[in-house]
């Protein structure tokens, strides 16, 4: 049963192969087994590749089975259409497009398996890329908020500078009226005279202005600090909202690109392995001599071809003979008097009808 199944997978004619020896049957069973297991590997590879995209086991397995059946059909077609010829050059020309197709299939099958085999190394590369993307994302978002925050901080510094300047002025007035009272400056008279009162009033007025300025600027500074806090909150929110996109940066294309950053030699050997598996049935047929199955198949095909060509030739000969007979018959009839008289009569009637129709048209026109 298993042998017959693999023979079916090889694409060989089972009726012809059943008449061949066991060795011939085993050869095609081996070819069919290679086709089957290649399709099985294609199913596994596609299922894993689609799982990295959909994150759904059932959908991935379903599409993987469809893909495996497609690869199975292509491989079976490639193997079944390669036939032994009398010339090695003809066989090579026949196999060349099929070998190219097998190379493409090998690439498609091997790549998802490479992703699975080197999964840990790919995850390390993706982690480094995610860290770089995270920093770049934070910097890009910061470029949107930092200028606004810097402008607000400049305004706060300006308001604080106004308070500091006013405090320096108040301190200077305070020192002036104190030294006036002590007699160490100004009028140089000890005591609280008119000059002292004048300087004290200036200090008190400046102190009141300072208090008002502090109240106003503190309110403005508090409002500006609130805006800065809002901007900082928005910045953190933007970073938080965009981070899941970076965290999910592990799809199929990202993994393929990460695989490309790893050393190429291990991936190349895996590709060569699948290329050998995919092309082995083709080369096995090319290098093997003509077997019993090939001769029986050739006999069957040439029999049908010869019979078809014979029927086509007979039809052409029959058509040619029939044309010649018809020509002779018409030539003999053309010389008979009865035929000439009949044709003459009908021609006369046709000319009369044409004349009557022309007369009616001319009369209607007038």
From TrEMBL:
The signal peptide annotation in the UniProt record is: none
Q: Does the keyword Ion transport apply?
A: no
Residue stretches spanning the membrane:
28-51, 57-74, 264-287
Going by the entry's taxonomy, the superkingdom of the source organism is recorded as Bacteria
What keywords is this UniProt entry annotated with?
Coiled coil, Membrane, Transmembrane, Transmembrane helix
Coiled coil, from the record: 196-227
Q: What is this protein called?
A: DUF4407 domain-containing protein
According to its UniProt entry, this protein's organism is Winogradskyella pelagia
């Amino acid at each position: 049963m298993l042998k017959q199944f693999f023979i079916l997978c090889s694409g060989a004619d089972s009726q012809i192969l059943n008449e061949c020896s066991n060795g011939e049957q085993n050869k095609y069973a081996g070819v069919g087994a290679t086709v089957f297991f290649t399709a099985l590997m294609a199913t596994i590879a596609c299922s894993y590749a689609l799982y990295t995209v959909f994150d759904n086991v059932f959908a991935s397995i379903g599409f993987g089975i469809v893909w495996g059946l497609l690869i199975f059909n292509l491989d079976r077609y490639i193997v079944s259409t390669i036939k032994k010829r009398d010339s090695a050059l003809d066989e090579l020309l026949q196999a060349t497009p099929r070998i190219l197709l097998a190379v493409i299939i090998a690439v498609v099958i091997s790549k998802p398996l490479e992703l699975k085999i080197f999964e840990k190394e790919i995850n390390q590369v993706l982690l480094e890329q995610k860290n770089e993307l995270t920093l770049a994302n934070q910097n890009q978002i910061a470029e949107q908020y930092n200028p606004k925050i810097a402008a607000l901080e400049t305004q706060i510094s300006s308001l604080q500078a106004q308070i500091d300047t006013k405090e320096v002025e108040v301190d200077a007035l305070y020192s002036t009226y104190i030294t006036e009272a002590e007699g160490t400056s100004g009028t140089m008279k000890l005591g609280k005279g008119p000059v002292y009162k004048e300087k004290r009033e200036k200090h008190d007025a400046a102190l009141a202005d300072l208090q008002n300025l502090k109240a106003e600027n503190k309110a403005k500074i508090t409002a500006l600090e609130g805006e800065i806090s809002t901007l900082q909150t928005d910045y953190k929110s933007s970073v938080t909202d965009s981070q899941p996109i970076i965290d999910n940066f592990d799809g199929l294309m990202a993994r393929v690109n990460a695989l490309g950053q790893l050393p190429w030699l291990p991936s190349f050997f895996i590709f060569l392995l699948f290329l050998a598996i995919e092309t082995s049935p083709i080369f096995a047929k090319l290098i093997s001599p003509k077997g019993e199955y090939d001769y029986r198949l050739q006999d069957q095909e040439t029999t049908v071809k010869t019979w078809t060509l014979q029927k086509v030739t007979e039809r052409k000969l029959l058509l040619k003979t029939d044309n010649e007979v018809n020509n002779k018959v018409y030539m003999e009839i053309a010389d008979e008097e009865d035929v000439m008289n009949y044709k003459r009569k009908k021609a006369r009637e046709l000319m009369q009808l044409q004349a009557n129709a022309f007369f009616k048209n001319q009369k209607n026109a007038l």
